[in-house]
Amino acid sequence: MWGLLLALATFAPAVGLGLGEPGASVLGLAPPATTEARGSARGSTPAPQSSLVQPPAGKDNGTSERHVRIRIVKKKVIMKKRKKLTHPRPMVTARPPVTTTPVGVLDLPEEQEPGCPPLGLESLQVSDSQLEASSSQSFGLGPHRGRLNIQSGLEDGDLYDGAWCAEQQDAEPWFQVDARHPTRFSGIITQGRNSVWRYDWVTSYKVQFSNDSQTWWGSRNCSSGVDAVFPANSDPETPVLNLLPEPQVARFIRLLPQTWLQGGAACLRTEILACPVSDPNDLFPKAPALGSSDPLDFRHHNYKAMRKLMKQVNEKCPNITRVYSIGKSHQGLKLYVMEMSDQPGEHELGEPEVRYVAGMHGNEALGRELLLLLMQFLCHEFLRGDPRVTRLLTETRVHLLPSMNPDGYETAFRRGSELVGWAEGRWNHQGIDLNHNFADLNTPLWEAEDDGLVPDTVPNHHLPLPTYYTLPNATVAPETRAVIEWMQRIPFVLSANLHGGMNDFSYLHTNCFEITVELSCDKFPHENELPQEWENNKEALLTYLEQVRMGITGVVRDKDTELGIADAVIAVEGINHDVTTAWGGDYWRLLTPGDYVVTASAEGYHPATRNCRVPFEEGPVPCNFHLTKTPKQRLRELLAAGAKVPPDLRRRLERLRGQKN
User: Fold this and answer.
1) 37, 95, 281, 366: which could form a disulfide with 28 (CB 3.0–4.6 Å)?
2) What is the pLDDT of residue 655?
3) What is the Cα–Cα distance from 223 to 227, expressed in whole angstroms?
4) Where are the domains of the chain?
5) Where are the beta strands (DSSP E) in 318-452?
6) What pTM was computed for the model?
């Protein structure tokens, strides 16, 4: 559908997100190189235990030339040819938040909270051209792949690998980000390489800064004054946060891996925490201001805050809203829905029902917040008298389910937007991926089509649930069951899942046309990005709701009684998918502009066919039907009521019997 495609084209693109170790936000001296290769000593002879070593004077790449004495507990350097790993080698765990002075006195830094938002490596606000590195093993492992939570392809060494990786022979690797403006850097989050074939991660690194990419200075340990060495990762996926001992204002930031997993390579994915600062000399072009002028609550809402917000919207707009629950999660959290219509709580004859569902994966928070923002916006604009919103809520019944997986979201929310990782909170509390928990109706339909059984023997719509799916011991999450029952209870016409695979199920099990919308490149964006994400998606969210007015609509009635006929089948010639009428006899059939031959049929009635034209102008085209009962149906109803059979019906039945004989 053209209008539908227009709506889809305006949705923002998509991918994933993550967070790290709560206690890893601190500094320390270089950790003992017990099981890892050290970048500055590759190929050198192993030093004896407890010896004092000195990092080499760096090449002209900004590395510090200051000689630092470090006590090495044990040092082992092993150079091996790269090969596929089946199990990870021993790991180095990020050290606790303690720094050591030269005289052995411990500094215990106060617990810090990351004060600056992400610079935007994960969300792609930082472009590929802003990322550089000392070397790369291949294009697919270039600096443009060094973004937090980026995922690899299935093939090792393809163009879409899961990290930046320095060349094996690069003794002093570095990864550099150009912020393009003076920026206050406050922290770094790192991950290892995402791969099904290899284990690679950095276990410690230094940080340097520059204003011209030529002259560099390092982040210093507050107590000792030497270059700080930050503990990094002990596995490929867990994000680890380190805050700088003192925030630094610069244009460039550079990470210099010091140690990495033995047998692996210097590979990392990262996000930089940074705040913009004003340029007193006005030497750099100002970054465009991002945000929204809508007076909405732009923050992340846990379950308690979400429930409170929905209640506030309901109290502000009681005449057009209703909050109801469709069931509970495995941990007992209610699946709340916000209904918005001029007659909330009531299905009006001829008024289509539309739904948005978000939060199928608990760690994909953007869809959840967009629906909370949408309900606020619709309420606010309706009270303002906005004609577009007024028409939408007058002619449509809108249902918004912001959190299908509240248990998973609570897990992700506790980790925070930058540390939740790609998978934590994705599943429900039972460990079920709701994305793959709906019954497979595609396979039996395709097999029936191949056997020529559709639609005469097997229907092309309203496919029943498979027997295995209805058994008491079937692995079906309570959240999934609640949504299925919701689908069956309300005659939805159009739906969008702000990420998840239930669209096929919805299309084959009910009347509802559904799409999946991938949102953002960041599953759990920082709060300061929510206003811009709302602006990116607001128009598409509204336009998609309006697509329900495209096509034909009408009521199928009994010709004698004028009562609506429930479950009548609406078939469009040339389209192998039918829809059925609701309990009042009303139906909606989404169609693109054109001429169509439409047939309405129901059990006990003669079918009726008519031509219906859908113009390019907005608005559904009325296409009503009056069906006449068959003689057998009339006879059944008369006999059931104990009435006499009228002469005309008796004569018709006799003729039918004669024709049959």
Assistant:
1) 95
2) 77
3) 11
4) 128-276, 308-342+355-437+475-529, 552-629
5) 321-328, 334-340, 353-358, 397-401
6) 0.76
